[in-house]
Amino acid sequence: MSDFLRKRQVTVKCIMTIMVIFIAYLRLPEVLLEPRFWAEEGTSYFSYAYDHDWLVNLLSPQFGFNTLYNSIATSLATKNLASPMDIVSIREIA
């Protein structure tokens, strides 16, 4: 595949991603403006991180999986390195 086609594919993918985010924002802006925990993030991940040491949280599988991203985010939120709402905001963007 030529360099031009690769660049075009990347450009199209970026434009499509921005369009999807924009349409999602138009449809439900409070999801991005007022962050919140979703499903098991608050009841399982955050509560487990709150009750345990950061290393235990990082190395313990949740629901049978090692969820590194959720473990790091909730560890940061529970240890006052970032507010829970900041972590939720980051999670919703990612």
Q: H/E series, N to C?
A: HHHHHH
Q: Provide mean pLDDT, rounded.
A: 80
Based on DSSP secondary structure assignment, what is the total number of beta strands?
A: 0
Shape: extended
Give unreliable regions as ranges: none
Give a structural overview.
- The longest helix is centred in the N-terminal third of the chain and has 25 residues, at 3-27.
- The chain has helices at 3-27, 30-33, 40-51, 54-59, 68-78, 84-93.
- By secondary structure, it is mostly helical.
- The protein is extended, with a radius of gyration of 17 Å.
- The mean pLDDT is 80.
- It folds into two domains: 1-31; 35-94, no CATH class.
Explain briefly what this protein structure is.
With 94 residues, this protein is mainly α. 72% of the residues lie in helices and 0% in strands.
Summary tags:
0% strand, 6 helices, 94 residues, 2 domains, 72% helix, extended, mainly alpha
